[in-house]
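Fill in residues.
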């Protein structure tokens, strides 16, 4: 793989962001199994948890190859912990709907958008393991679509309202945007704009979860 001088550490930082996200997705999917009584959903979530664990291992391996002694940037960890705390609160309340919004809709949707845009650069650099990368993207898409299907059914059955889903989404979007922008220095260092990644994610959300404008991210602090 052709990586420009000085890019190793920045790419490792972006992959660290992905690792932390995959670890959170694994923990959430594992917990969600007990939040639904439908066997089909439980089976899917068990499979998702396994896949998320595998994804984290793949990204960790790539980080070790890029920078063997890299450490988790504290700012990324801090903002991921903020997101995790809110999501774990929903799990504790057994609010399956909110966990779907936070994990399958927002976290998976953001991960999918990032992987797809990064893939363009990896192809240009002649990166190896193209088939594996495609599998990861396909699985992220499947996890996102799973959440959309369940929420759509809930709406059709009047089990939840559009307003409730929109409100839940707006609670998590600023946290997710701040989380993404905690890696902005790494994005800019490899000539990428994090706003373009956010826009790609946000525009892919169903209209009934969007507001008239994309939310601003919270100020970053060390």
């Amino acid at each position: 793989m052709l990586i420009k001088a000085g890019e190793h550490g920045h790419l490792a930082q972006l992959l660290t962001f992905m690792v932390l996200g995959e670890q959170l997705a694994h923990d959430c999917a594992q917990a969600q199994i007990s939040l639904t009584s439908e066997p089909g959903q439980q089976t899917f979530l068990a499979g998702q948890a396994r896949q998320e664990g595998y994804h984290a291992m793949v990204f960790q391996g790539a980080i070790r190859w890029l920078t063997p002694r890299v450490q988790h940037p504290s700012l990324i960890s801090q903002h991921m912990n903020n997101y995790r705390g809110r999501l774990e609160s929903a799990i504790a309340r057994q609010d399956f709907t909110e966990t779907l919004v936070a994990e399958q809709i927002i976290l998976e949707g953001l991960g999918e958008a990032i992987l797809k845009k990064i893939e363009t650069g990896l192809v240009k650099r002649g990166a190896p393991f193209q088939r594996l990368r495609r599998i990861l993207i396909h699985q992220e898409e499947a996890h996102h679509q799973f959440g959309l299907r369940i929420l759509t059914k809930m709406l059709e059955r009047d089990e939840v309202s559009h307003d409730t889903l929109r409100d839940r989404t707006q609670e998590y979007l600023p946290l997710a945007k701040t989380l993404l922008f905690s890696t902005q220095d790494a994005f800019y260092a490899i000539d990428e704009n994090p706003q373009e990644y956010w826009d790609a994610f946000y525009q892919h959300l169903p209209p009934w979860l969007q507001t008239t404008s994309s939310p601003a991210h919270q100020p970053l602090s060390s």
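The helical segments are 7-32, 39-66, 74-92, 96-124, 130-156, 162-181, 184-189, 194-204.
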